[in-house]
């Protein structure tokens, strides 16, 4: 866990990584947020050991302590499965000063790759209970979630380093693990597609700038001159 000292005059951002990785995958994004005067809480959590609902409980204590340090809004920025953990968490422990939420490559509609691999013992051993909740047949904990009444910005990717999965398993366009269609969420405030692969989304400079734009304004930047690598859709 990495925490930037909270300044009561600043908003705070909770960062949640995806399955099977750690807070290090969000370091570049975290450093940029800190330079833009956000306090940050970049959490590690046992993504492969427990189901989504248990992970949401595990992260509650550090998030509550972080929120208590800040007088500003508490935003959430999450990559991949971290977005699902965020949705479950907010349904149970919504901060009093909840700000905005940005999800990067989150499989809100599930992933066809999880559908394909869920029957294999190796997949179950590596990705654990939460890995089985990433299928397109939504887990009960996800189907029970209420429609979000907070601002959510969705950033999807449309580049891949996994051509077989991208071509034969996932609907196109996709980022090699999650399709653009699956990343979308009913009730989202805004949605963009960036030319990045799944793992590279949190480090992509345009995705980072667009994340900060949404935290500030509740919408993504439409300045095509400044963000020529962003598309509202991908062919």
Explain how this protein is built.
There is one protein chain. The protein is of the alpha/beta class. The protein has a single domain (2-231), classed as Rossmann fold. 35% of the residues lie in helices and 16% in strands. It contains ten helices and eight strands. It has helices spanning 27-35, 52-58, 60-69, 81-92, 112-117, 121-131, 140-143, 163-168, 180-183, 205-217; strands at residues 2-3, 12-16, 39-43, 74-79, 98-104, 152-157, 190-194, 230-231. It has an eight-stranded mixed sheet, sandwiched between helices. Helix 2 (52-58) crosses helix 4. The chain is globular. The relative contact order is 0.14.
Q: What is the assigned CATH homologous superfamily? A: Alpha/Beta hydrolase fold, catalytic domain
Q: Calculate the mean pLDDT score and round it.
A: 91
Major sheet summary line = 8 strands, mixed
Strand order of the largest sheet: 1-3-2-4-5-6-7-8
Elements, N to C (H/E) = EEHEHHEHEHHHEHHEHE
Output the radius of gyration.
17 Å
Count the DSSP helices.
10
CATH class: Alpha Beta
Taking pLDDT < 50 over at least 5 consecutive residues as the criterion, the unreliable ranges are 224-233
| Separation of the first and last Cα atoms | 38 Å
Structural class: alpha/beta
Portion of residues within helices: 25-40%
What is the CATH architecture annotation?
3-Layer(aba) Sandwich
Quaternary structure type = single chain
* CATH fold-level topology: Rossmann fold
Note the beta-strand portion.
15-25%
Tell me the domain tally: 1
Count of DSSP E strands? 8
Shape: globular
